[in-house]
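Quick one from the shared queue. A colleague (R.T.) flagged Protein translocase subunit SecE as missing a structural entry in our internal table.

Convert sequence to structure tokens.
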Amino acid sequence: MAKTSPGEFFNQVKAEARKVVWPTRQETTTTAIFVGIMMLILAVFFLGVDSLFSAIVRFLLSLA
């Protein structure tokens, strides 16, 4: 693989940076709301699973 000079590397970085497409404010807001909703759903799900396993372990320990 050929070595790239620092100047050429910098030019390539600038060229790639020009290709970046930033999301609009609407897309960012929609994505943030979606992430928040998914976070709440997963938190409730894992709370339920943890409570279920806790109850099972408590039951099994009460048998001993």
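The chain has a mean pLDDT of 95.
The chain has two helices and no strands.
Added to the table.
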